[in-house]
Structure formats: structure tokens, C-alpha cells
Design brief:
The chain has five helices and nine strands, in the order H-H-H-H-E-H-E-E-E-E-E-E-E-E. By secondary structure, it is α+β, with helices and mostly antiparallel strands. The strands form two sheets. A seven-stranded antiparallel sheet has the order 3-4-9-5-6-7-8. Strands 1-2 form a two-stranded antiparallel ribbon.
Length: 240
């Protein structure tokens, strides 16, 4: 679930629980027209055509409703599952389950989703990705050791018939200050490319190489002009 959908669900939850489901009331509190809120919450149009709750408006909602900063970005704000009409918490008879509940993280962290070109030009800075740097953020339970960002995997060079396998379309979280050592999946920048590349770092005879998980692609030597930008610490596979 992307950040815009999390915000939409949370806004609907706040509308229902604090304003009796009346969009005009929460709109007045947020200093917006009721039609604007309705467009943000609408389930009658395709998600790509829905009014998305951006970074600035999300922070405005939190401030106006007395919420902690980034509370609207947290999946735990609304524990209920909404019905298709968006008018309440859905209920149904218990059904046999083939999954087990797992402990939920106590805290979530948000990181920007950046392009491969942006990742390739990353340089050490006090705050390389300040608030508002990206119009898209995703969250994780991983607490980064340094500046971190999400990338969307392109191509099938990291797709394998055995684990680990990171298919195209997956999102990977990169920690720029995680420990770099052979065996880790890394984001690197080669001198002859303006984009970053995603490979497994291996070492043979004291020489480091960037190895794809897909054997159909060549292994490249990580020479002196090869810069390791960060280590991949999380991978999320999204299903259409």
C-alpha cells in the first residue's frame, strides 16, 4: 500500500471517528472546501484519478487535528478495515485462516522514493534528502543508520530462480551508512554511468566485483572508481 492510500484511509478514519462521517465538518476544521475533502476520499473513481493527499496537506491535517507529525503516514492510525463504501468498519463472519498474526512494529520510519539518477548523484551531506525533497515517500520498520531512500527495481538482472530474488517493480530500501561487506546487496555508481546500479557485492582474491543475481548478466569489477552508495536493507515486492 503506497503512502497516498495510507493517508486516504487515515483521513476517512478521522472523518468517521471525530466528525461523525460528515465531510463538511472536517473540511471546515481543515480550512478546505467539502468538495476538496470528498475528492480526497472518493472511492468511486480509479486510484490514479483520485485527489492525492500530498506532503504539505498531510502535515496541515496533523497540525489542525492535533496529531503527531507524520501520524497520517502510519498504517497503525486506523486499525479497522474499511468497507467498500468508506462508511465504517466492515464486519464479517469468522473464516478459517491460513496466516498467523505477527507482532507489529512499535515505530515506523519514512524515507523518500528517488530515481536511479538521483541515487547515482548522491553525496554525503548533513541532510541530502530534506523534508519536501520528494513528492513520494514510503515507510518501513527499519531505522536507518544514516540517510536512506527507496528505489524501484528496473529490469531482471536481480531476478533469480532461488532466494534471494528481487524482481522488477520491487522497492528496495537503501541505507547509505550500513556496513558494506562482501555478500551484501548494494547500490553502486560506476564511473562510466550517470545512474546507480543494484548488484551483489562479492570478493575473489582480494578483488571486489558487482554480481547480478541473474546469471544471464555479466559480473563487473568494482574498481577504484566504483563508489558504493549504500546497502539494501529491505525489499518489498508489490503485486498488481
Amino acid at each position: 500500500m503506497d503512502i497516498s492510500e495510507i493517508r486516504r484511509i487515515n483521513l476517512q478514519h478521522l472523518t468517521d471517528t471525530q466528525f461523525g462521517g460528515v465531510k463538511a465538518k472536517i473540511a471546515a476544521k481543515l480550512e478546505r472546501e467539502a468538495s476538496y475533502i470528498a475528492r480526497c476520499l472518493s472511492l468511486t473513481v480509479a486510484p490514479e484519478n483520485r485527489k492525492k493527499i500530498g506532503e504539505d496537506f498531510a502535515r496541515h491535517i496533523e497540525e489542525r487535528l492535533g496529531l503527531e507529525r507524520y501520524a497520517l503516514d502510519s498504517p497503525s492510525l486506523n486499525a479497522g478495515k474499511r468497507d467498500d463504501a468508506g462508511g465504517g468498519v466492515a464486519s464479517s463472519a469468522p473464516e478459517p485462516s491460513n496466516v498467523a498474526m505477527i507482532a507489529q512494529p512499535e515505530q515506523m520510519y519514512r524515507y523518500p522514493v528517488v530515481s536511479w539518477v538521483t541515487a547515482g548523484t548522491w553525496s554525503e551531506a548533513v541532510q541530502p534528502f530534506p523534508d519536501g525533497f520528494s513528492d513520494r515517500y514510503d515507510i518501513s520498520d527499519y531505522k536507518a543508520k544514516g540517510p536512506a531512500f527507496w528505489l524501484e527495481v528496473k529490469g531482471d538482472s536481480m531476478t533469480s530462480t532461488s532466494a534471494p530474488s528481487i524482481p522488477e517493480g520491487s522497492q528496495i530500501l537503501v541505507d547509505t551508512e550500513a556496513d558494506v561487506r562482501p555478500g551484501k546487496l548494494v547500490i553502486a555508481k560506476l564511473a562510466d554511468s550517470n545512474e546507480a546500479t543494484f548488484k551483489k557485492l562479492v570478493e575473489d582474491g582480494g578483488v571486489r566485483y558487482l554480481k547480478p543475481l541473474n546469471p544471464a548478466y555479466p559480473t563487473v569489477q568494482c574498481s577504484d572508481d566504483c563508489k558504493i552508495i549504500g546497502v539494501v536493507v529491505r525489499s518489498l515486492t508489490k503485486f498488481a
